[in-house]
Design a protein that fits this description.
By secondary structure, the chain is α/β, with parallel strands linked by helices. The chain has nine helices and five strands; from the N terminus they run E-H-E-H-E-H-H-E-H-E-H-H-H-H. The chain is globular.
Length: 197
Amino acid sequence: MRICVVGDELATGVGDARALGWTGRVVARTHFSRPAMLFTLAVPGETSTQLGARWETETAARFGPDSEVENRLVVALGRHDVASGLTVARSRLNLANILDVADANRTAAFVVGPPPGTPAEGERIAELSDAFADVASRRRVPYVDTYTPLAQHEQWLADMAQGGGVYPGQAGYGLMAWLVLHTGWHAWLGLPQDEVA
């Protein structure tokens, strides 16, 4: 199995002293039946428009070309659409295009939504997360809402405050990993649910 994670710097765990981020923590807690390769393909400050323009080329070089290899795509959406002023309609379309191309390529997709950022962006990130969730749901693609459960979570807020309000630290990435692991990750990989602790 080859899993490509595409997204912005949050996919790489910027701000995590252990340098694991949520992706490293999720993989560490996943017991694959056969060896798996995970590639994190992140671009700092990237919007969903920029992600849509590059993901297919970058994953093609890492995905297996033959039927012996299972290719999987994780779309890790950040908060830069809000900061760059993209409309929600444009963000929706960008994700829809990514998921439709992945489906046409017979690549199973999994979407992780944007986590909370600064309080000033809260309402717009919430709206963006809801829009992304709707796009994924319409395509029957698993979606992890990281915004709603973390927006008022004391540990998340404390972690963000320590990081200057931009990036979480170890605790915050741990919370994101927990949400991913408990929102269909194992089922999407075809692994037993009891692997999650």
